[in-house]
């Protein structure tokens, strides 16, 4: 499973070569060979249902990430952490690859995958961490503050610290890479829609 995780990180490094500059991400991705050995993760039971929405492998770096995400999924700590009792844990799942709870430990940043099922609203939420998403597969309507856009695979979405944001998928699932820098320990929290 270590090879599947390293291969996934390598493919993410290839994608993030086109991303807006983020030194924390670059430091971790360039140094993947020197990361400590991974600690296997275990998905939350409820999040296992969301994994059914992982996209199939395809061509190019994005398609490769889809296939590698499927291969590495059993060793990743999939969970849903934004709310309790909202029944979204079977439709939205996150897994840190690098971070305090990820297979590769870091207390400086988080880097992982977000999976949102079709026809699902990930409600307005915020967190102190600066967040950069790289979209791997699918489209969603992204709302950040008063800005709305529908970026597609290969595009990036930046959420500055504390800015409320939400995603609404349509007919296809969304698979995206997230990275957090700054305050990575404070979890996300729901905010009122603007």
Query: SSE string, helix = H, strand = E?
Result: HHHEEEEEEEEEE
Q: Which percent band covers the strand fraction? A: 25-35%
**Considering DSSP H and I runs of 4 or more, what fraction of the residues is helical?**
10-25%
Report the major sheet.
5 strands, antiparallel
Total discrete domains: 1
User: How many whole angstroms does the radius of gyration measure?
Assistant: 15 Å
Any idea of the CATH class?
Mainly Beta
Low-confidence stretches: none
CATH architecture: Sandwich
The CATH homologous superfamily is named Jelly Rolls
Commentary on this structure:
The protein has 194 residues and is an alpha+beta fold. The chain has a single domain, classed as Jelly Rolls (Sandwich), CATH 2.60.120.10. It has 3 helices and 10 strands; from the N terminus they run H-H-H-E-E-E-E-E-E-E-E-E-E. Strands 1-2-9-4-7 form a 5-stranded antiparallel beta sheet. A 5-stranded antiparallel beta sheet has the order 6-5-8-3-10, with no helix packed on it. The protein is globular. The N and C termini lie far apart (43 Å). The model has no long low-confidence stretch (mean pLDDT 83).
């Amino acid at each position: 499973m270590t090879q599947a995780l390293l291969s996934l990180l390598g493919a993410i490094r290839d994608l993030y070569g086109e991303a807006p500059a983020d030194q924390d991400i670059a430091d971790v991705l360039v140094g993947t060979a020197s990361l400590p050995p991974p600690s296997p993760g275990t998905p939350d039971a409820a999040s296992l249902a969301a994994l059914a929405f992982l996209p199939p492998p395809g061509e190019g770096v994005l398609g490769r990430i889809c296939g590698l995400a499927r291969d590495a999924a059993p060793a990743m700590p999939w969970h849903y952490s934004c709310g309790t009792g909202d029944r979204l844990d079977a439709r939205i799942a996150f897994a840190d690859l690098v971070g305090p709870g990820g297979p590769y430990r870091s207390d400086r940043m988080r880097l992982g995958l977000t999976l949102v099922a079709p026809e699902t609203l990930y409600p307005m939420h915020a967190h102190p961490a600066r967040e950069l998403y790289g979209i791997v597969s699918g489209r969603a309507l992204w709302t950040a503050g008063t800005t709305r856009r529908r970026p597609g695979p290969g595009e990036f979405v930046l959420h500055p610290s504390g800015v409320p944001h939400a995603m609404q998928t349509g007919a296809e699932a969304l698979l995206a890479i997230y990275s957090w820098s700054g305050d990575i320990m404070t979890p996300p929290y729901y905010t009122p829609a603007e």
